[in-house]
Amino acid sequence: MTTATAATAAAPKAHCASAVIEMIGVSKWYTPEFQVLSNCTAKVEKGEVVVVCGPSGSGKSTLIKCVNALEPFQQGDIYVTGVKINDPSVNLPALRARIGMVFQNFELFPHLSVMENLCLAQQKVLRRSKEESVARAMKLLDRVGLADQALKYPGQLSGGQQQRVAIARALAMEPVAMLFDEPTSALDPEMVSEVLDVMVELATEGMTMMVVTHEMGFARKVANRILFMDKGEIVEDAPSKTFFDHPRSPRAQLFLSKILSH
Amino acid sequence: MFANFDFGEITRNAPQLFFTGLAFTLKLTVLAAFFGTAFGTLLALMRLSGRAPMPQIAATYVNLIRSLPLLLVIFWFYFLVPFIAQAIAGSERPLTIDPFLTALITFTLFEAAYFSEIVRAGIQSLPAGQAAAGYALGLSYWQVMANVVLPQAFRAMLPILLTQTIVLFQDTSLVYVLSLEDFLGVAGNIGQRDSRLTELYLFAALVYFVISFAASTAVKRLQARSAITR
What we know:
heterodimer, A: alpha/beta, six-stranded mixed β-sheet, globular, disordered N terminus, B: mainly alpha, 80% helix, flat
């Protein structure tokens, strides 16, 4: 991870201390020929819900995984609550503990019960006592409507239930922001809404969220801003209403015409 | 054909066969499997770490050990270790090392190479997102390994690890070349002393068969039960 050189980046912008997540000129290459992200710059302010959308392979998931350093990037900087995550001296586990992440394939730990899934990091990372972590876990399971499933194993739950447990697991760490990487893409259609309902509730409570999703209904309803990505670039960064009503770029217009036409 | 056989020979020597010989063999098997798995797991983690020179060191070790006959490694250790210990301790003559300890170290180092490949396959069989989910929660590398990756990898690989341990159980009989009192060694000694080698080797074969077969049957039943539902 090198800092942007003068040749490739315009005048380096100072990072904004108020933003929860700030990306400045982030670029990533899988190989020297294959660039997945090019010069991505965006901010997520406190309490904001930002939806990242765009065609498959546009780099949305890669970008969101860069935010908590699950994916390395070669150029640019990312700040989370003012902390530069690509600083080699940064304490990554401590930083990641403050950002919740929900994955496309849930990634609950199948060898642990639902309760153990929620308590593991609370106890190992935040050093909470067993009683405290169990109490918090129960509260969150209740909130996502799964208090009665605490002793089951992930394999015994439906996809929608598993994803709600995954959201509760992330919330148990009391994150400053939540990242959602296509949280409903692996779900059967009838289970999508139960997960979206939980996410809408979170958004209305003021959680800072960055959401990669194809659910344009969700985006219209709760997103403050939309990032539209194509071929590794953030093509459009606009308030939700502006993006849906008057998309500027032809690529966004084409994308919207395809997914909203039916 | 069994007319000249004296099976009383077995019952007369049963205490020595079981409490000296078989006890040695089982102790060596269990300890070598335990330490071999521990060291093998470390090798597997090194090999998957992606941080040079860790993978290269582990790969070289595994490839070297797997290319050598076990018997050669046993000899090599038995005759070399006293000199190595001498060099380390700086003493005047080669140190005598407890033969059991020599055998245990040899089998641990040898089996670790095989166990490491099993553990590595177990880790690689997990979806990559499992470790990512652990890291995303703020767990450190060792916490992710200890709480997320290895418990699942071991559960998936337990039948193969146990099968390898059954092979180890049979392989421990090779320590007879060091004149150690393992089960086969004791049986051979008694047989030679009393000129009853046929009876004792038949009996030894029976005992190895019963234990190995019972263990592999148990492993098969375990395998059917231990699958994780995803």
